[in-house]
Amino acid sequence: MAKNEGGIVETIKTVVYALLIAGVFRTLFFQPFWIPSESMKDTLLIGDFVFVNKMAYGYSKYSCPFSMCPFSGRIFASAPERGDVVVFRHPVNGSDMVKRLIGLPGDKIQVKEGILYINGAVAPQVPDGVFQEVMELQGPMKNRPRCQNGAVGIGAICEKARARETLPNGVEHDVLNIEDNGAADNTDVFTVPEGEFFFMGDNRDNSLDSRFDQRVGGVGFVPAEFLIGRADRIIFSSAGASMLYFWTWRMDRFFKAVE
User: Fold this and answer.
1) How far apart (Å, rounded) are the C-alpha atoms in residues 205 and 2?
2) Strand, coil or helix: what is 206?
3) Domains identified in the chain, total number
4) Residues annotated as part of the active site
5) Strand arrangement, sheet containing 115-118
6) For 78-137, how does the pLDDT look when each residue is reduced to its tens digit (9 = 90+)?
7) Domain that includes residue 218, residue range
8) How far apart are the first and last CA of the chain?
9) At 23, which CATH number?
């Protein structure tokens, strides 16, 4: 074998080994997740690609890196915390979803006039301006955003009132409001069962989350074994129908921490 041929072979082997290592690393520790809907705006936008830390809570049958796991249920490395942005498997239809963890086992959760109450105490909201975006078809699914300022035309500015909400453990995050007295702005008291969790979207009027029964497409309570991991960082973001449309890339969101 000629010397230059040997160099090419070694280069190919190096690339193959690097890809294998990257694949193992991804399977064991991280999973990329593409944001397909506006339920978590403005924390997460359609077209954000986030890294999900699969080691954050230990392994369950859904986050296990192997095709067959030696256990059912979940083995926690550390407990999920209120305010975490979590990717989980929908308990009924099996789709991957991302929402914010609001209720822990034993908590009593209620929404009254759009304000969140946890164990009878209000999670205070402070007005924080207006979230604005251009009315346009978003992502491969060509979603149209919902707007507080009415049915605006393509190219116009779509607005949603924004507030800063503080959870009992001190976690602060943005929430958006589209309409008063929306479908889930006034709820009964939900008591979170042991071993399960209660999730809500930050875009409160555009999220089929734990406020909605699973029989009508909602998330309901989510058992611990359905948790996949914590969304830690946005790696890449594109506003276009394809990630190849470089002119639609949101450079200011690259490597942004998820809060």
Assistant:
1) 67
2) helix
3) 1
4) 39, 99
5) 121-122, 115-118, 108-112, 190-191
6) 789 999 999 999 999 999 999 999 999 999 999 999 999 999 999 999 999 999 999 988
7) 3-257
8) 55
9) 2.10.109.10
